[in-house]
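Pipeline run #58 for the internal structure catalog. This entry was flagged by the ingest filter as a single-chain record with no existing model, so it goes straight to prediction. Upstream metadata was stripped on purpose; only the residue string is passed forward. Reviewer on rotation: M.T. Logging verbosity set to normal.
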Amino acid sequence: MMLVVLALLVWIAGWWINTRLAEGPQAGTRAVQLLVPVIFGVTILIVWELVVRGLQVPLVILPPPSMIAERFGSSMPILWADFSQTFLKGALSGYIIGCGAAFLMAIAVDRYEFLRLGLLPVGNFVAALPIVGTAPILVMWFGFDWQSKAAVVVVMVFFPVLVNTVAGLRETTAMQRDLMETYAASYWQSFFKLRLPAAMPFIFNGLKISTTLALIGAIVAEFFGSPTVGMGFRISTSVGQLALDMVWAEIVVAALAGSLFYGCVAMIEKTVTFWHPSQRG
């Protein structure tokens, strides 16, 4: 029980430090904004370690972070191979294809009204389909390698990007469009100089949402068939072997990959839409 009491003290100390930092005179600085989540995360890991060891939680239920870190370090070649198969081949390729196709389709939808009236309702229907129902079908169509996982990702990211892009292209006001017409601007001149820049915040919202959907789709698709490599395959087989430390190591890889992927898209957004009010300050 001493470890549990120590965990409680660590939690109180972390809470107190974060409260002082968040409410102190330096609360708005960049250093504090970075330090608070770091302290919070470290506190959770320490409390997790102490509680699991203090209560002697079985390893098949919840291993301590130290054991997960040990497995992570000793299984780097396996984790890298799984990461390459799932993220680089399946998720990233599907993300690029799906987002690119959605952007081109959004331009067609914006140009032709019948596509907006006919395609978007169908898109809402397809987006509501559960991945556990569509993934096995796509695996049977495209095989057990990464191509079927990329196909699942394409289906998952296509409509969020399509809907956001279409909404963004309609963001300009009637006065702005009339002004371009008084300049005798063609459709494409108006598109590239007015409507596309105005749509960028919407487009990047869809791209950021799709970063997490892409990784989730690729991992879940591997549960329904894959070669003997991949994050979803490893999680599924490790659960069957009660190797929960390996499962958590794969979860850590997925969390790091998803966070870095989202961060890269957010950095690109900040560079492209520097003029938007949401990026100021």
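catalog note: The chain is about 80% helix and 0% strand.
catalog note: The chain has two domains: 2-57, 72-280.
status: ready for reviewer M.T.
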